[in-house]
């Protein structure tokens, strides 16, 4: 790796940035509390400008810039800022038992609704068209779309591995409404399971304009700081995607942050297997790192109640963090946090927070003002410890050996020693920078799925094809082709078919290198 | 006469029904969530579904057992057109020369437990509280109708799109083979089907396992209850399930293979079960559990690998190395524990050369 790397993450309460040199050492860092009157884009832009002006930083030496848009993994999607989406599904007469956006919460549906149609067409499991795309119906749908044209989300039956009709429909939409229309195609976003894939595709299209504005601000800030770097964005699974791909598929950025914190924790502590406990002002998030990668959740992901088929890291969220206000009498129930950190007792304010409880117990370093230990503070801290112990015990129960704890986040000092199921506690000195450091060290991922007849020749051909497609998708996402390696390849026979079919899945990882965005050619799968 | 109080299934019951049917699927039968999404739409448009107790079923009513055949994963991609139930009712009505009076699901386990709710809503017909197997099986003759001597044929299959197929087979095994071939080869990998149609009288005489949908609802409601008890306790208290071993999945072998048997997983005990190792044979669902080379429980009993953290059953297709699970089992419905039932659904019928090993049912805690 040559040159320096910039990592910026905007979170719920802070914006954090680091610059690391070619060896990964942090040469400059900055943490700014977020204020309600500034947008995330403004926060990021200001932080980039400040870091670029840091005398320890040579802006011309920065080769890569990684940006993370952190949210709580389970945070609802705000309807505000979403743009309208025309939803086109290719599959009639199949699929009509559930209409597009069926089962979405009303507010979210209302925010994105710009018409929907289920048109005739769709592929067969074999990869051949089950019926031809009804081009006339697509044209009619375009003609009926509101003006100016909304973003389009196109989802076809069995498009994963055989996307030709989605691509055909995209061409029709562009011919009718112009090449500037944002079009999201489902085969680039998900695996089998039409409804989940369609949901992800619609959200993708709905986020496109807001993300464009954000990206323009980031680009402008980088240019203003005389930084000429390849830009990557953090993806929900802990990998990175190049700027061009992020612009096309902003939905993959939702749920970002936690996985990168865990990667950063591993990097800062040098421990590949760990229970990572991150204490933010409002929450404590606990995840497992195995072999340097975050463990994935077993259950399906829903965003705002909408199933999207993503594989997110398995993170437990304890709704208490360093800034959580304690309700005095029993010292227990979490209240609303103070509006400013200066409201905390240890900063001279009048609100008792969890951090104050840790200061009183001499677990956390003293603030500007002394905090006297009270029964209520002691009880609150004990209750917090109990919650962490419970989660830690459950998460580590299945591991062959107790892993160490790596405590990160601004409130890392609040994590008690000796959590059950663990052995030893690492408190890396730059614990507050873990997410930004994780971003700078993340890989670029690729993924592909195929269905094939479960016969030796066919299965192997599908596996070869899926490897090729996964490699292409990683390069598309901005990976250096020479570094891409397969990290997961599995074959799962589908049940209940007389002529057996196997589902082949391949995941790859590579180092960031190149600007990505070279669109993979449509491949005819089987 | 005592007044019959209608039990109505409405949209708010669907999450619990789906969760319960997922449990009864014991690792097979597909994700009932798709069925719940489809049924919700149908109930929103046509109103709730009357859940009919077998006791209240008239002897002369034509009962249509129905469900989907083929791959649940393909179903998740093709979703269904929505008219399947009506097409089946019309075809069965003309084959029998009388209208269908009630629907019953072929299998309460998996997607099939919920999908007919949508069809009942659209057709306005009641749905029997019961099913044909009390779980999920991958062959269509593994139904109590077969034990009760009700012929599977004529079988009606439809993809509500390109074709509707009517099969008249000489025996139920042939009907199964032909129907599955049609689902796979002609109808795109998944279809809706109806078979073993019967009168209300035949339903009373062993043609239906009674009460399985309400059991599914009970399991689902407990699992979704805000102060939920652990899933293992729910399965124990409602279904009489026992935990065989708690541990981690350390190996999953899906075989070179096209045709199971040949798929299996190893669960290595942890905590109090350290030192133990179970081998779990998989076909469509989990079929045999072996410890130290001996079978400790087999089909037709219900067998689960319950994800310890998520508190949900893991489908065989989703099983992965590294998951921590509780291997559990519960007694099969009574018709399967008879000699004829075991001959039909025991491990030998699934290609495993071991004798059936069944758990003893507990009073009031079983399907």
Question: If you had to describe this structure to a student in words, what would you say it looks like?
Answer:
The complex is a heterodimer of chains A (526) and B (367). The radius of gyration of chain A is 24 Å and the shape is globular. With 526 residues, chain A is of the alpha/beta class. Helices cover 29% and strands 24% of the residues of chain A. In chain A, a hairpin with a 7-residue loop joins strand 22 and strand 23. By secondary structure, chain B is an alpha+beta fold. In chain B, strands 1, 2, 3, 4, 5, 6, 7, 8, 9 and 10 form a ten-stranded mixed β-sheet that branches. In chain B, strands 15-14-13-12-11-18-16-17 form an eight-stranded antiparallel β-sheet. In chain B, a hairpin with a 5-residue loop joins strand 6 and strand 7. The two termini of chain B are 29 Å apart. Classes of the chains: A alpha/beta (526), B alpha+beta (367).
Annotation, overall tally of beta strands of chain A? 23
N→C terminal distance of chain A? 39 Å
Low-confidence segments of chain B, given as residue ranges, are none
* Rg of chain B, nearest Å: 19 Å
């Amino acid at each position: 790796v040559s040159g320096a790397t910039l990592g910026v993450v905007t979170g719920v309460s802070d914006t954090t940035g680091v610059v690391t040199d070619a060896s990964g050492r942090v040469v400059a860092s900055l943490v700014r509390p977020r204020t309600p009157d500034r947008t995330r884009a403004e926060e990021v832009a200001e932080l980039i400008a400040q870091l670029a002006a840091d005398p320890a930083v040579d802006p011309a030496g920065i080769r890569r810039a990684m940006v993370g848009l952190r949210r709580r993994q389970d945070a609802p999607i705000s309807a505000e800022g979403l743009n309208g989406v025309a939803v086109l599904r290719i599959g009639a007469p199949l699929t009509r038992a559930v209409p597009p956006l069926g089962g979405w919460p009303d507010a979210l549906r209302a925010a994105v609704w710009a018409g929907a149609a289920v048109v005739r067409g769709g592929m067969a499991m074999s990869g051949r068209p089950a019926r031809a795309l009804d081009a006339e119906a697509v044209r009619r749908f375009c003609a009926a779309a509101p003006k100016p044209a909304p973003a389009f989300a196109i989802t076809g039956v069995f498009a994963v591995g055989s996307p030709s009709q989605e691509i055909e429909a995209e061409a029709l939409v562009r011919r009718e409404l112009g090449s500037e229309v944002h079009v999201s195609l489902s085969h680039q976003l998900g695996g089998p399971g039409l409804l989940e894939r369609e949901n992800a595709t619609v959200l993708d299209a709905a986020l496109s304009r807001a993300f464009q504005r954000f990206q323009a601000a980031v680009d402008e800030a980088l240019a203003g700081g005389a930084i000429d770097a390849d830009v990557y964005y953090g993806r929900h699974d802990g990998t990175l995607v190049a700027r061009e791909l992020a612009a096309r598929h902003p939905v993959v950025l939702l749920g970002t942050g936690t996985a990168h914190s865990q990667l950063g924790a591993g990097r800062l502590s040098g421990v590949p297997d760990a229970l990572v406990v991150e204490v933010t002002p409002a929450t404590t998030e606990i995840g497992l790192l195995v072999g340097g990668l975050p463990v994935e959740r077993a259950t399906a992901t829903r965003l705002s109640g909408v199933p999207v088929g993503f594989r997110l890291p398995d993170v437990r969220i304890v709704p208490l963090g360093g800034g959580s206000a304690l309700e005095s009498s029993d010292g227990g129930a979490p209240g609303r946090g103070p509006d400013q950190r200066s409201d905390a007792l240890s900063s001279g304010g009048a609100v008792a927070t969890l951090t104050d409880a840790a200061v009183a117990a001499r677990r956390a370093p003293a603030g500007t003002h002394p905090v006297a230990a009270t029964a209520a503070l002691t009880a609150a801290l004990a209750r917090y410890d109990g919650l962490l112990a419970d989660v830690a015990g459950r998460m580590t129960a299945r591991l062959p050996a107790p892993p160490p704890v790596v405590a990160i986040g601004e409130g890392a000092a609040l994590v008690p020693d000796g959590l059950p199921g663990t052995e030893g506690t690492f408190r890396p000195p730059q614990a507050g920078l873990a997410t930004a450091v994780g971003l700078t060290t993340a890989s670029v991922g690729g993924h592909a799925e195929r269905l094939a007849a479960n016969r030796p020749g066919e299965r192997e051909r599908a596996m070869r094809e899926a490897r090729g497609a996964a490699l292409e998708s990683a390069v598309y996402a901005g990976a250096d082709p020479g570094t891409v390696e397969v990290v997961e390849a599995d074959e799962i026979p589908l049940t209940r078919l007389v002529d057996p079919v196997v589902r082949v899945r391949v995941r790859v990882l590579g180092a960031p290198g190149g600007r990505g965005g070279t669109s993979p050619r449509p491949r005819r799968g089987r | 006469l005592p007044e019959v109080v209608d039990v109505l299934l409405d949209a708010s019951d669907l999450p619990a029904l789906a969760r319960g049917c997922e449990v009864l699927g014991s690792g097979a039968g597909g994700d009932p969530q798709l069925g719940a999404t489809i049924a919700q739409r149908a109930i929103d448009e046509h109103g709730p579904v009357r859940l009919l107790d077998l006791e209240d079923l008239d002897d002369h009513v034509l009962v249509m057992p129905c469900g989907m055949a083929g791959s649940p994963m393909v179903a998740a991609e093709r979703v269904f057109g929505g008219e399947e139930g009506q097409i089946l009712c019309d075809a069965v009505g003309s084959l029998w020369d009388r209208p269908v009076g009630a629907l019953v699901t072929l299998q309460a386990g998996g997607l099939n437990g919920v999908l007919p709710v949508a069809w009942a809503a659209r057709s306005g017909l009641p749905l029997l509280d019961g099913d044909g197997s009390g779980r999920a099986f991958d062959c269509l003759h593994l139904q109590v109708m077969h034990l009760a001597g009700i012929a599977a044929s004529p079988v009606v299959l439809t993809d509500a799109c390109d074709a509707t197929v009517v099969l008249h087979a000489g025996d139920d095994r042939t009907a199964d083979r032909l129907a599955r071939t049609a689902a796979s080869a002609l109808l795109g990998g998944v279809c809706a089907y109806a078979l073993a149609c019967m009168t209300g009288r035949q339903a009373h005489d062993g043609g239906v396992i009674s009460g399985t949908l309400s059991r599914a609802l009970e399991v689902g409601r407990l699992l979704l209850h805000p102060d939920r008890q652990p899933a293992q306790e729910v399965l124990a208290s409602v279904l009489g399930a026992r935990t065989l071993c708690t541990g981690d999945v350390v190996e999953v072998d899906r075989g070179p293979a096209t045709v199971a048997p040949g798929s299996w997983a190893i669960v290595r005990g942890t905590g109090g079960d350290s030192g133990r190792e179970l081998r779990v044979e998989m076909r469509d669902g989990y079929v045999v559990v072996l410890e130290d080379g001996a079978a400790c429980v087999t089909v037709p009993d219900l067998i689960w690998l319950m994800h310890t953290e998520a508190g949900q059953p893991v489908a065989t297709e989703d099983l992965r190395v590294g998951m921590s699970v509780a291997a559990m089992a519960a007694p099969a419905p009574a018709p399967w524990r008879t000699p004829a039932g075991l001959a039909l659904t025991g491990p030998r019928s699934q290609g495993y050369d071991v004798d059936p090993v069944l758990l003893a049912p507990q009073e009031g805690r079983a399907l």
